[in-house]
């Protein structure tokens, strides 16, 4: 590995660890500070933190890899994501920020569900925590897989060594710095990702003779690469656009809305976040698209389409810049892993340890348990990531669908429908999660295709969960007067 590349990566790691040290000294003395940063995030940090934690290794590896493999017909997923993210900022963020504070200052999503519906049985807390731990372990594993592939293809290290290096650095700054460290590192990582996703496609397109020459070359390679409807019907388009539904139920994203310092900052955060996201997604797709022409023109070997960004960064740039581009991939990977580790840790700490094992735990005990949970979840995710053939995009899509279906309908309806009760919420959560799991793993085929190949599992999961919420809520007891009063208080602030 060139000296310039090593210098860039070393600087990146030092900056991340320095931020972790700063956050450790700043905001980890109590559990609220460790898990939610004291609800003090500004709009810029909120926006880039939400974006960076959302756009993990699949942004710089999965999206370019899919575009490289199938061409413009992969654009539908990105369109769905942009629409979903915008609606998340618009309809979820303001009310959730207000409601979580009024609902006994809820600092986790399971905490909010229990307080929102006054669930003294703790069934909502337990079930939502199980869903978080199950799907976030898969999600975290996808990021560690991306790290393993990065170190293997770029540095000549073993895949397993890459897993431990990736997870090790993230665990260090997350374990000590908590939510503030995660959010601040996400901000820096979001800036790095933005620059990389503007720089790489521009240089790649220039190297193949410009946009016109690139399109002409791709048309000669395979005209279907230029067809947005190539081998994709209306059901497949709906499935791709449905990725946007996942935003409403992603704990690591919507927790940023809970942590922003005021509702008044949300419109500014939305403008920053959506601008960042659109440019980043267009850059990621353009990288994969231009990569088709570049690889064909140069004859460069590419065994794994998900490493096209890595290849272009290595061959087109000076080693110092190449190191920066590799740091961008690490930034994408680490920003999401850290967020997922922290949310899972908060669930294990508050929703299991404090709720059932030690209700009188001190703030220091809870922070210690939170840190131990970060390390434990990381070890489990590393174990799952040992499968070298794991597809980053497949792992992400499964976890994304699980959260979107289990939590998305509950989050939306809990903020807007006064008649929803805890029975409906529990029914919706279980129905959504089980529908996704059945859709993925059931040995059922349609015309020789698995259910998930026919329709993305988030669609039936989201629909069935929504139906379960409405039906069960209407068939069971009415909401309590005190809960209606809090709902009306939130509604009056946002009407």
From TrEMBL:
Membrane-spanning ranges: 6-24, 36-53, 65-87, 123-141, 161-184, 191-212, 232-255, 276-296, 308-333, 366-386, 392-417, 424-442, 454-472
Gene3D superfamilies xref list: Sodium/glucose cotransporter
Gene Ontology CC, one term: plasma membrane
Catalyzed chemical reaction(s): L-proline(in) + Na(+)(in) = L-proline(out) + Na(+)(out)
Recorded superkingdom: Bacteria
Recorded topology in the membrane: Multi-pass membrane protein
Entry keyword annotation includes Transport: yes
Pfam family membership, one: SSF
Subcellular location: Cell inner membrane; Cell membrane
GO molecular function, one term: L-proline transmembrane transporter activity
Keywords: Amino-acid transport, Cell inner membrane, Cell membrane, Ion transport, Membrane, Sodium, Sodium transport, Symport, Transmembrane, Transmembrane helix, Transport
Protein function: Catalyzes the sodium-dependent uptake of extracellular L-proline.
Identification of the protein by name: Sodium/proline symporter
Provenance organism: Colwellia chukchiensis
């Amino acid at each position: 590995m060139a000296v310039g590349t090593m210098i860039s990566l070393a600087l990146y790691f030092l900056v991340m660890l320095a931020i972790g040290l700063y956050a450790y000294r700043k905001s980890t003395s109590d559990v609220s500070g460790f898990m939610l940063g004291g609800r003090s995030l500004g709009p810029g940090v909120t926006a880039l933190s939400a974006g960076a934690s959302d756009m993990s290794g699949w942004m710089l590896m999965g999206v370019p890899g899919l575009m490289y493999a199938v061409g413009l017909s992969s654009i539908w997923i990105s369109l769905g994501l942009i629409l979903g993210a915008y609606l998340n900022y618009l309809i979820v963020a303001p009310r959730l920020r207000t409601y979580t504070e009024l609902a006994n200052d809820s600092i986790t999503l399971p905490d909010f569900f229990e307080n929102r519906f006054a669930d003294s049985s703790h069934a909502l807390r337990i079930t939502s925590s199980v869903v978080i731990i199950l799907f976030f372990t898969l999600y975290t594993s996808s990021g560690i897989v991306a790290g393993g592939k990065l170190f293997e293809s770029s540095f000549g290290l073993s895949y397993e060594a890459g897993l431990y290096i990736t997870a090790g650095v993230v665990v260090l700054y997350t374990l000590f710095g908590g939510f503030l460290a995660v959010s601040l590192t996400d901000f820096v990582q979001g800036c790095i990702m933005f620059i990389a996703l503007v720089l790489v496609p521009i240089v790649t397109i220039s190297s193949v003779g410009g946009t016109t020459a690139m399109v002409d070359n791709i048309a000669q390679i395979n005209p279907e690469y230029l067809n947005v409807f190539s081998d994709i019907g209306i059901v497949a388009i709906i499935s791709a656009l449905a990725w946007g539904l996942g935003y409403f139920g992603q704990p690591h994203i919507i927790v940023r809305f809970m942590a922003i310092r005021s509702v008044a900052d949300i419109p500014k955060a939305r403008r920053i976040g959506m601008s960042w996201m659109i440019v980043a997604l267009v850059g990621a797709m353009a990288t994969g698209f231009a990569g088709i022409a570049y690889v064909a023109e140069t004859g460069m070997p590419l065994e794994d389409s998900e490493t096209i960004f890595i290849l272009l960064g290595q061959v087109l740039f000076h080693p110092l810049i190449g190191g920066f581009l590799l740091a961008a991939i690490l930034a994408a990977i680490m920003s999401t892993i850290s967020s997922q580790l922290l949310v899972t840790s908060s669930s294990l700490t508050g929703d299991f340890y404090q709720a059932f094992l030690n209700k009188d735990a001190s703030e220091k005990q809870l922070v210690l348990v939170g840190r131990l949970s970060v390390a434990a979840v990381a070890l489990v995710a590393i174990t799952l990531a040992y499968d070298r053939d794991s597809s980053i995009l497949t792992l992400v899509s499964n976890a994304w669908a699980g959260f979107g279906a289990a939590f998305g309908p509950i989050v939306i309806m809990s903020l807007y429908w006064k008649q929803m009760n805890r029975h409906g919420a529990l029914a919706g959560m279980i129905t959504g999660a089980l529908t996704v799991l059945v859709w993925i793993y059931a040995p059922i085929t349609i015309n020789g295709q698995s259910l998930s190949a026919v329709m993305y599992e988030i669609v039936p999961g989201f629909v069935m969960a929504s139906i379960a919420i409405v039906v069960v809520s209407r068939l069971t007891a009415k909401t309590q007067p005190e809960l209606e009063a809090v709902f009306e208080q939130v509604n009056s602030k946002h009407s």
